[in-house]
Specification:
heterodimer, A: alpha/beta, Rossmann fold, seven-stranded parallel β-sheet, B: alpha/beta, nine-stranded mixed β-sheet, two-stranded antiparallel sheet, 7 helices
């Protein structure tokens, strides 16, 4: 609708009525798209279909044509591409400025962003100047009969699920926890429009300089079928855990304590401030089972806990528990796995 | 009180030789003590003791370490009711030069949008070169306020910061940030908002002398909406885009909770579950 058609200000539709489309931010770093982006496109597709809206992917970066094409295969009707060297590597101020400009110009109804450090970093630079509602750490999404987004998030250590709504402001923004939704397989026959948008960021006006960036550990614990997770009880000696992980063909994961102590990379952290995982098998070694950790692994199919404290809360969240010294139990488990079955035959 | 005012003016003057650092702190219900009212299903926060948000200790240490490196002052700021003065006393005991309480009925019911707006005005009012915050609060866990402060003021921001490296000769602050799967070193123009990663700084203990001062003589500066030039309509519940539409308690996942004695027994059980083959 053009300005002429909307008439004077008094009869102009409100921001809420004017807003349409579901946007999903596709987070790309040096050619790699974060898996949460594809998870959100799948979930965004469902919401867009419920609303009768288009699903729009927003890709920001440099040389991101492949990510734009994949976004269509992953469910987007349209893709907005901001492709410029100013966006590589990621910085909060250029991303925020570009995203904000597009939001102000086009007023999406919903905008979903992966709850990664990157997403949580720049989302406020969009939500604040547009006076949008921004819900953090969302784990469930729905729309009600009025087309309003119901963003649900755990509160107070996960004992409670709060539903957050945003009745009078648009867009309804959310940063969504990684690993909660499943990404659908890409459909290469899907068709959609790719639109290159003007870059509104000038390098001379940026506020930050990335001096150095080292991204080495790209371990994706979200996709692993089996995880061996280490906690404070390991005292920093991850040898037995690594051995057991190898015998089980599992990836290593960790509690916040193990990450905070510097024993293992933050990318492997499970829990409220880490990742949400749902493997077929989750083995917790020396993890006490604080609610903020349990929240990130509670959807695992089978949970095993090994801890020398019989009163550790983790046993309340485990299917099988061994009360004992992990430095003794884990090597024995690894030995019997290696001895009695070829690891190659250890099937799901 | 005129003495206090004189102290405040002189500390502001000294900051010409260094940086003005403001550190945001929050009083939160002790997360270990929050229960749910069985009748209403609502959180019973009233009975939980109020404590300093744990990640803010990292922020205090980072702020004080910047002052150690470049000189200047550190002022703690909190937004809340007068009882929140307790966390300011803790900050002063740890070594902050001064502290300000941002308090006004107009702020009641604010979500992160007006909260970050009020704090943005406060840090600007205090003349911050650097505003340091904790990663997130333990009561709402959004992590939205530090970027919100930066966005309201149009300042640079650095989040998930593990190490700070002031570059006074360049008028910039460099930092090591935790990014997915690695780290980056990034430099930001001043003024900048820094949100430090939880657990990355070792908070210094409060000195006895400082602690006595904080608990007996110290009074925080009070800043109202009016003092900060904030229109009451721009803060509080009505200016908050988000609302809580409902709360439900989460049913615990049903687990076997079976204790097994030996590794062999465990492997048998896992084999029966079909998660490993034997």
């Amino acid at each position: 609708m053009t300005d002429a058609e909307t008439g004077d200000a008094e009869s102009a539709p409100s921001e809420v009525d004017r807003a349409s489309d579901v946007w999903v931010f596709v987070e790309e770093h040096a050619g790699d798209v974060m898996p949460v982006s594809w998870e959100l496109l799948t979930e965004g597709r469902r919401l867009a279909d419920d609303l009768g809206d288009d699903l729009v992917a927003l890709v920001i970066g440099e040389g991101v044509g492949d990510a734009a094409d994949e976004a269509i295969a992953r469910g987007a009707d349209r893709v907005l591409v901001a492709d410029d060297p100013v966006f590589e590597p990621y910085r909060a101020d250029p991303y925020g400025t570009q995203f904000r400009e597009l939001v102000e110009e086009r007023v999406p109804s919903i905008a979903l962003i992966g709850g990664t450090h990157t997403g949580r970093d720049f989302a406020g630079r969009v939500a604040v100047p547009t006076h949008a509602g921004l819900t953090a750490d969302v784990t469930e999404l729905d729309v009600d009969e009025d087309g309003q987004l119901l963003a649900r998030r755990p509160a107070f250590g996960g004992d409670v699920l709060a539903t957050i709504v945003c009745p009078e402001h648009r867009p309804q923004m959310a940063t969504v926890r990684a690993g909660v939704f499943e990404a659908a397989e890409p459909d290469l026959d899907r068709e959609g429009d790719v639109e290159r948008v003007d870059t509104v960021v000038d390098e001379a006006e940026t506020l930050t300089d990335v001096l150095e960036r080292n991204v080495s550990d790209t371990a994706d614990i979200i996709d692993a079928d089996r995880l061996v997770a280490v906690g404070g009880g390991t005292g920093g000696d991850l040898g037995p855990a690594a051995e057991l992980a190898e015998a089980l063909d599992a990836e290593l994961a960790a509690s916040r304590k193990a990450v905070d102590e510097g024993w293992i990379e933050g990318a492997r952290q499970v829990g409220q401030t880490g990742k949400t995982v749902r493997p077929e098998l989750y083995v917790a070694l020396g993890i006490s089972g604080a609610v903020q950790h349990v929240e990130g692994m509670n959807d695992s199919e089978v949970v095993v806990a090994i801890n020398d404290d019989p009163n550790a809360p983790i046993f309340e969240h485990a299917d099988y528990g061994i009360v004992g010294d992990l430095f003794e139990v884990a090597p024995r488990l690894a030995a019997s796995l290696e001895g009695e079955a070829d690891p190659e035959e250890v099937l799901q | 009180m005129s003495d206090t005012a004189t102290d405040r003016e002189s500390s502001a003057a000294e900051s010409d030789d260094g940086w003005t650092v403001v550190v945001g702190v929050k009083q939160v219900p002790d997360s270990d003590e929050v229960g749910i009212d069985p009748d209403t299903g609502r959180l019973d926060r009233a009975n939980a003791p109020a404590v300093l948000n744990a990640p803010d200790r990292d922020a205090l240490e980072a702020a004080l370490s910047i002052r150690d490196a470049v000189g200047g002052t550190v002022t703690a700021v909190t937004m809340g009711p007068p009882t929140a003065t307790d966390v300011l006393e803790e900050a002063v005991a740890m070594g902050c030069d001064d502290a300000a309480l941002v308090t006004d009925r107009a702020f009641a019911g604010s979500d992160t949008w007006p909260t970050s707006y009020a704090l943005a005005e406060a840090v600007d009012h205090l003349g911050a070169d650097v505003a340091v915050c904790g990663e997130e609060t333990t009561d709402s866990s959004t992590g939205q306020v530090p970027p919100g402060i930066a966005a309201h003021n149009g300042w640079a921001q650095l989040t998930y910061v593990e190490d700070v490296d002031p570059l006074p000769e360049e008028g910039r602050l460099a930092a090591r940030r935790d990014v997915e799967g690695g780290h980056e070193r990034i430099a930001a123009d001043l003024p900048v908002v820094v949100a430090v990663a939880y657990g990355e700084f070792e908070p210094r203990p409060a000195g006895l002398h400082r602690k006595l001062y904080a608990e007996t003589d110290f009074e925080p500066l009070e800043l109202t909406a009016d003092d900060l030039g904030i229109d009451a309509d721009d803060v509080g519940m009505d200016a908050s885009p988000t609302q809580v539409g409902g709360m439900e308690t989460v049913d615990p996942v049903d687990r076997e909770k079976e204790t097994v004695e030996t590794p062999a027994e465990l492997l048998d059980a896992l084999s029966d579950e079909g998660v490993i083959a034997r």
